[in-house]
Amino acid sequence: MSTGNELKAIAQTEAGAPAEAETAGSQYLTFSLADEQYGVDILRVVEIKGWTPVTRVPNTPPHMRGVLNMRGTIVPILDLRARFNLQEVEYTPTTVVIILSVYSGEHRRILGVVVDGVSDVVNVSPEDVKSRPDFGASVDMEFIRALATVNDRMVMLLDIDRLLSGADIEGMAQAAEESAADQGA
């Protein structure tokens, strides 16, 4: 889908905050995690690739699997099962990494997320989008932007910009670059 130069350009572009109405009348890439369906705005998807081992970075949170060098761009890889406190499973041939363009402060960054499998690209009309439910303070819904009904199934539309803080992404990228420099010396 993208060349190394395009990945670098996306990662280094300064831009404003993402559009607020991102969930209305859009296309979403849907994927599965623990038999549930999730969706991300298709315009934020940079690339989809099969699982390949990553370079582990010391002192990172458990949901951070490491980093991947994609044509010269260091891409932090996040396991969504671990991030959402779901049961861990072995990676299989259907395990996929979705490379996404996320906003971190005023910058766009590249981030990979490990999911069980990609399902489909779906059209979501505004009338099919519902606000996320309010379970009170006991349930953290910060990653869910909205819910949508697609072909009689519920799809959780993610707010991908909240998956990691900018400090997490910066720390992983810096640690990976230092590790690469140490190995090259």
What amount of the residues lies in strands?
A: 35-45%
User: Which CATH first-tier class would you pick?
Assistant: Mainly Beta
Q: In CATH, what is the homologous superfamily?
A: CheA-289, Domain 4
Q: How many domains comprise the coordinates?
A: 1
Instruction: List how many beta strands DSSP finds.
Output: 11
From the N-terminal CA to the C-terminal CA, the straight-line distance is 33 Å
Q: Count the helices. How many?
A: 3
Shape: globular
Largest sheet: 6 strands, mixed
Please state the CA-atom Rg, rounded to the nearest Å: 16 Å
In the CATH scheme, what's the topology name? Answer: OB fold (Dihydrolipoamide Acetyltransferase, E2P)
Strand line-up across the major sheet: 8-1-2-11-10-9
Explain what the structure shows.
By secondary structure, the protein is an alpha+beta fold. The chain has one domain: Beta Barrel (OB fold (Dihydrolipoamide Acetyltransferase, E2P)). The protein is built from three helices and eleven strands, in the order αβββββαββββββα. The N and C termini lie far apart (33 Å). The N terminus is likely disordered.
Highlighted features:
single chain; 185 residues; alpha+beta; OB fold (Dihydrolipoamide Acetyltransferase, E2P); 6-stranded mixed β-sheet; 5-stranded mixed β-sheet; 3 helices; 17% helix; globular; disordered N terminus
